[in-house]
Amino acid sequence: MTSTLPATRRTSAAAWGLATAVALMALAMTLPVVTGWNVRVNSFPPLHAEWDPRVGWGTVPALLLAVLGVRHAAALAESLPWRRLLLVVFLVGLAWMLALAFVDGSHGVSQILGEPYEYLRTARRTTDLHATLQEYVGRIRSEEPRHWPVHVAGHPPGALTFFVALDRVGLGSGFGAGMVVTMLAATTAVAVLVTARVLGAEGAARRAAPFLVLGPAAVWQSVSADAMFAATAAWGIACLALAATRRSPGRSVLAGLLLGCCVMMSYGLPLLGVLAVAVLVVARSWFPLVPAAVAALAVVIVFAVLGFSYLEALPAIHDRYFEGVGGRRPWAYWMWGDLAALAFSAGPIAFAGVAQLARVRFRDAGTRTVAWLSGAGVAMVLLADLSQMSRAEVERIWLPFVPWLLLSCALLPERWRRRGLVVQVVLALAVQHLLLTGW
Questions:
Q1: How does residue 2 score in pLDDT terms, banded at 50, 70 and 90?
Q2: Contact partners, residue 169, CB within 8 Å, separation at least 6
Q3: Cβ–Cβ < 8 Å for 215, 378
Q4: How far is Cα 215 from Cα 223, in angstroms, rounded to an integer?
Q5: 49 three-state secondary structure
Q6: How far apart are CA 333 and CA 317, in angstroms?
Q7: Beta partners for 435?
Q8: pTM above the 0.90 mark?
């Protein structure tokens, strides 16, 4: 049982959600073209992308995976033993991401992370991480003569530290780092499924699994450090759920360490606190709260001791953002244009699933879990949107929020899920083959 509402009312809610997503996507694409409104992004708003139809090495594998996924994913998700399902989710997710990326050949994995505004070039030049942390805040603002590249300046030093570590172990090439990021990204869906099952929603997790694996978010997961942030966040939340349901101090500390790392990777990821609270509410246990919070704070303190002050960095990043293109992107477009970009990344079926949250009345544990986790996902997106620190590019920036929204697809009627998966894979194939995305 997923709801006490009649099927017609549940279908109506889904239809409104889907219609909203499609309308946002269409309006965000056409309004700048029709009016000439310069919204300060590449030539295909709301995405940071350019029109570039093409096929490549990954086209045939991607099409094959799409067809097989549409035909068999739902049945396999329902029938496979749990551990085997998690393995299949990882492997198929990895194959889907790589097939899409390899539409552009090996450059589809290596090129973006090797760009000057990304982390790798700075990571290769970092010979003394301690000294780098000590001067980190002073090099954020753009008026500084030795200011950081865009992405290094725009994130706390945890992100750069990750790529410094990759470089030190011989994975500092664009392709090597891209493969690591992609493999980590493929574990995100596994972590979300583990979280849902631990919190009593195995059935819902199985219904949502195809949407967590086969969707347009994969276009950005192979080429964006934000996909690594998303994986770290998902495993932090999974450890928190395990700690809450099994009263495990060790898992509580691990959850805090992972979530603390997220705080040091992106200024937007303290919003994960909303999701963490939702997990504890669903688990009806506050046992992990103190050890997890202490461990997360310890991560921040370690960086502070090494020279990076989070509180001093906040006004500096605010100045850097609004002095740059972010400050010139019109608020009147991006307040809703960001949601349109999210519809491309999460896929419009995620909006249909989210719409169910407003209508569903639940009594079983599975539906309650999905409602809380997906509701937290919605809250994080809205708070991020209202912050105005993410004008455009949210197709990658909001990747840590996307899987929790997609979990709501478990609430959709069966025929909606069957057709919705077609929509998701077709959109992913269209975006990858028609647009050259910037991430």
A1: very low
A2: none
A3: no
A4: 15
A5: strand
A6: 22
A7: 51
A8: yes
What is the C-alpha separation between 268 and 278, in angstroms, rounded?
18
Cα–Cα distance list, 42 to 50, 147, 385, 435 (Å): 6, 24, 20, 11
**Can you say how many angstroms the Cα of residue 109 is from the centroid of all Cα atoms in its chain?**
17
**Beta partners for residue 437, in sequence order:** 49
Structure tokens at 113: 């992370």
Q: Record the tokens describing residue 336, joined without a space.
A: 């809703």
Give the pLDDT of residue 4. 44
- Write phi, then psi, for 138 (nearest 5 degrees): -65, -15
Are residues 94 and 426 in contact, defined by beta-carbon separation less than 8 angstroms? no
**CA 256 vs CA 8, 215, 237, 265: distances in Å:** 43, 29, 9, 14
CA distance 201 to 204: 5
Amino acid present at 125: R
Kindly provide the b/e burial profile for residues 179-193, where b requires at least 16 CB atoms within 10 angstroms of the residue's own CB.
bbbbbbbbbbbbbbb
Burial class (CB in 10 A: 0-12, 13-18, 19+), 248: middle
* CA atoms of 208 and 381, how far apart (whole Å): 20
Residue 147 CB neighbours (<10 A):
15
pLDDT of 129-173, one tens digit each? Answer: 999 999 999 999 999 899 999 999 999 999 999 999 999 999 999
Q: Are 394 and 342 in contact (CB under 8 A)?
A: yes
284 contact partners, CB below 8 Å, separation of at least 6: none
Please state at what angle helix 7-35 crosses helix 331-346, rounded to 10 degrees: 130
User: How is 96-154 classified by DSSP, letter by letter?
Assistant: HHHHHHGGGTTHHHHTGGGSTTSSHHHHHH-S-HHHHHHTTGGGTSTTSTTPPPHHHHT
Rg of the chain over Cα atoms, rounded to whole angstroms, equals 21
Which residue is associated with the tokens 């699933």? Answer: 353
CA gap 154, 169 in Å, rounded = 25
Tokens found for residue 6:
């009649």
Q: How many CB atoms lie within 10 A of CB 324?
A: 15
- 28, two tokens: 């965000």
**Distance separating alpha carbons of residues 341 and 394, to the nearest angstrom:** 6
Residue 326 pLDDT > 50 = yes
4 or 428, which is more confident:
428
Residues 6+ apart with CB under 8 A from 168: none
Answer for the pair 26, 34: CB distance below 8 angstroms, yes or no: no
CB atoms within 10 A of CB 95: 18
